[in-house]
Fold:
Amino acid sequence: MFTVIDGIPTFQYTLAQWKKIATHYGGLAGLTIVGLLLAAILPCVGLFFCCCRCAGHCGARSQPFDKKHDHCRKVMLSMVLIAVATIILFGVVCAFVTNEYMQDGTKELPNNVKVSLKDVKLYLNNTKEEIYNILKTNFDELEINLNNILQASGRIITEQLAEYSHAVSLTNLSDIVAGLESIKEDLKIMHTITRDLRTNASQLDIVVRGVKNNLLHTLAACKTQNCKQVLHDYKVNQMSVQVDFDKLPNVTSALHNITMLMKGNIVSEVSQGKESFLKIQKDIQHAVNQTIPVVSASIRRIGVFCSSLATNMTMLIDRINVEIDRSVKNVDFARTHIDQYSPYRYYVGLGISGILLTVLMCLTFGLFCGICGKRPDGYGDDCCNKGSGARFLMMAVWIIFLLTSVLMVITVVHMVIGVLVQRAVCEPLKNPYDNRMFALVDEIVQINKTLYPQNPNDVNMSYIVRNCHLNETLYKVLKLENIYNVNSLREYAGRYDINNTIQQLRRKISLSPDVVILTDSAKSKLNDLAQSGLSDIKFYQYVEILADNITNINLEHLSKQLLEVSAELPTGQDEIRVSLEKNALDLVYYHDQLVRPMAMLSEQLVTKAVTLEEKIKFNHSSMAEAIHHLVDEVTKAQQFLNKDGPEYVQQLATKFGNAFLRQVDDFLERVIIYALSNVGRCGPVSNAYNATLVAGCNKILDPFNGFWVSVGWCLVLFIPTIVLCVKLSALYQKSDPYPGPLVEAVHDKKYVSHSRDPYAKYESYDGPAGGYNERERVPEAHQSTSHYHHYSRYSDVAPNSNPTWRSHEHTAPSKTEPHNKVFSISVETQ
Structure:
């Protein structure tokens, strides 16, 4: 098998392996030997054929007229040659097409390889970025988050303690007390608005009564229908203020009680309880701050290790990128040579295809002239008669004899190269599993030394290709566990002493006993707040009472109607007109100055009432219930903190430490999972590898193999083509059709004697130009052959007893007549 000695591949095969090679490549060797033998024999055959033609044989000379079955022979042989030419046409077209495809693939190969290398480099750079992000950037974010948690550890534990012990109710009590100032201001505003509304309502009631009495007197004095209509429609006699503002709730007592509580420092006393609880948070945070630097240093050591791990992996990828850059330069160098020399191969292929096309064109023209052309008659022949067809066919034969040997050698070389490259390069590259040629590549290309110069391992090209086809991660493909085993990240806690530092953190978190978060004085004042009467205010009455219009008649609309009525009064009622106009103006004034401001104050009062009602409930039915409930919750929380608080704080410290460690564990577990399953899946490398195979094997080697198969196909068909062309050429050269069996027999006999007698050309002369009337000599028995008379120069010229005939038997041809002029000569019967 192949082995590599000092970097040079050498053959070291055993006898059994040689037998396998013979079995594997036996067919190729057999075809090579046959092709070379054919290339060697064909020139000898051509020389022999040429000599044979020169001697007048092998179709060089033939009878001038057809034999009995020559027409059938021509038809059959032409059909066979047409079929063969059609098959050759397929081969010629394939030769041209594959040669063109091969040239295109060769030109595109450097670009395709370069694109694949750039894709691989892009994949490696993206993988580098992924490694850097997960090991460096993400851990830096985790470190910042962990340090923030350490800094907020006291607050986190205190919040959990407050939630569990219900001490969070103290915050709600503080919010209630802190909102007393706002509640007091709202009550003041409501009290002021209520007072103003009552005052304005009294004033409005007085003026409305005066306008009503005046209008009743004036409208009664007016006798028009409009006056009566206004009096009826607006029910002036019922006009009054319909809202009873005296029924609005009185907030004076509640306002007074809240004011007194605030003067009694209820806010500060409740806030002191909240400060006492927050002191727990400060104490815990102060104790934790002593351990934070130790924990942070342990976390930083993990970050430094992850950063160094990322650096080592990226350096490995950088080494691969350097090799890729070197390969790109080699591709550019190869492109120069391909651009320089590939046209020569292309033109050689084009020349070979052109030779095949020339032969095909000779066959085509030969068949066309032979089938469609006229018979040759010696003078005035058409350029495309059957004789031209015969010459075209023989031209094809001579081209075949002259060039087939060279083409056969070139085809054999192409075949050997194509098959060897297919089996030795493309097939192993397409199927790298358990392949000897790929094993040789692994021995030549020591990629493990490139990746791990100080610690070589079993990483090789076939291993990389197989795993990339499976879309494995870069960690598995390059066996990065040789640099660092990511599974050992799970042991970080012991390696970096994280557990001990977290235990120290837990011990620092504790709770002092005798916690007071709500004094008895604060409880008493909160109870007074609950009994302040604020919860007794019926806020819904503001909505119900102020929902109606202030007056039962719209004063503005009534004013407009009065003005319209006064304008329509007849002359003579000036006093009524003036009275109506004065009352209308008064109504407009009262509406703008009293009704409209009172409506706005009513809306404001309703809004304040609804808002304040929701504000003092604190998610309960009333403020009193909320305060009593919260005071009970805070009292229970204080008892819990003094009794079970220290133990629970230790439990919270343990949970906090475990949650802290869990974040680090989750991150490192994520690193392990991503390294083994996600980061750097090398499917893109597999795609680039397959694209390179397509560019090399499918776009170059496949057309290359198709080219030699097409040429070989044609060369093999040239052998029967020679025979068919020689046969058809001899048949196409005959100038006359079949004359009949008797004349043919005589002519055959004379043709044999003429071929032996050097003076036979004189005996074959048919007679002088001024011959006799041969029709007188035609016997009655042969009258049926008269339709052959214009071809009678090939008729039987046997002598008879007529002395006149004998005197002209050896007479030279006339100089004034062409030698091949047709005469009608018959044999006279006795």
Summary: Residues 4-9, 753-830 have pLDDT under 50 and may be disordered. The CA atoms of residues 219 and 228 lie 7 Å apart. The beta strands are 2-5, 8-11. The first helix runs from residue 15 to 54.
